[in-house]
Amino acid sequence: MEKTTLGNSGIKVSKVGIGLWQASGDWKARDNDVIEAVEQAHNLGVNFVDTAEAYGNGHSESVLGKALKQVGRDNFVVATKVNGAHLRYDELQKAAAASMSRLGVKEIDLYQVHWPDPWEQIPLKYTMKAMEKLYLEGKIRAIGVSNFAVRDLEEARSCLSRADIVSNQLRYNLIQREIDDEVTPYCKKNNITIIAYSPLAQGALTGKYTAAKPPKGDVRDLNQIFAPANLSQISRLVEVLSSVAKSHKRSISQVALNWVASLPGFIPIPGVKSAAQAAENIEALDFELTKQDIEKIERAARQVKVDYLPS
Fold first, then answer.
1. Backbone φ/ψ region at 52: left (φ over 0), alpha (ψ -120 to 50), beta
2. For 3-21, how does the pLDDT look when each residue is reduced to its tens digit (9 = 90+)?
3. Three-class DSSP category at 174
4. Alpha carbon of 194 to those of 118, 201, 283: distances in Å?
5. pLDDT, tens digit, for every residue of 204-237?
6. Which single residue of 10, 60, 119, 190 has CA 20 to 30 Å from 219?
7. Is this structure's pTM higher than 0.90?
8. Cβ neighbours, 10 Å, residue 10
């Protein structure tokens, strides 16, 4: 598996990682299946795994901790995120210690602020100083953020004196590309890696779901992207992805993932619920889209009009 570097950290990670929100309990995934998925990822050359204390109130971190015991901690670059409720200086120190305990590690490779404080009750400078303290003490190897706009990135970076932000974790896929207006150019200019979560739009870009057959019974019940009108729009893009997939003898999801992974400075982290799913996602990097493929896909993606407002 080809490796890339997280920002200016020197930390080498695989060009695709895996996300473990699926181990939170919100996705009907069994713990043992997720552990097997982590093992399969390792077997296929992936060394980057992402979780968060907010996923199942620490449950996802605990599941990953069990997987690391079986696979070997040194085989993975471990990323986790501090909950928005723990952004105060002292609380963040305690949250990091609790995450390390659940993960069974002495050091977190990439520690991220999950969301900026939406009410701005906690000055960002206290949060970032707490992150820098962990970095200087050797408890974390690199500082990252998640869901940060440019203004948040600029403020956060200005609060750091002996470290810098190496990554910004953001939702990104063929139909949800809002960050391209401002955030993507800023990250590229400042060597901040974009970790792309939801690179398959929670399954909307896999070809498994239609307006007549949406996903049911999990966290996606609340996601407007699966409204019938939106799925009808997305189906046009899925048809194009299917055509490209057939030409490469690949699946629709593999084409959609390959597209994200081919972008400079991006690392997709599709969620995994099973070893088979992990294998399919990771093998998405085993082929190369042609220039014509990319033009065809992006032309179709521009025509998709998704409405996020309730009808």
1. beta
2. 999 999 999 999 999 999 9
3. coil
4. 21, 16, 21
5. 999 888 877 888 867 787 788 888 889 899 999 9
6. 119
7. yes
8. 10
Q: Is 283 exposed, middle or buried (0-12, 13-18, 19+ CB in 10 A)?
A: middle
Residue 308: alpha-carbon gap to chain centroid: 21
Per DSSP, the residues of 16-39 read: S-EE-GGGGSSS---HHHHHHHHH
Quickly count: other Cβ atoms within 10 Å of residue 236's Cβ.
12
Find the length of the chain.
311
User: pLDDT by residue (tens digit) across 109-155?
Assistant: 999 999 998 777 889 999 999 999 999 999 999 999 999 999 999 99
Specify whether 55 is catalytic.
yes
Mean pLDDT of the 68-74 span: 96
Q: What type of residue sits at position 158? A: S
Q: d(Cα 291, Cα 257) in Å, to the nearest integer?
A: 16
Q: Show the domains of the chain with their CATH numbers.
A: 3-202+251-289 (3.20.20.100)
The C-alpha atoms of residue 78 and residue 83 are separated, in whole angstroms, by: 16
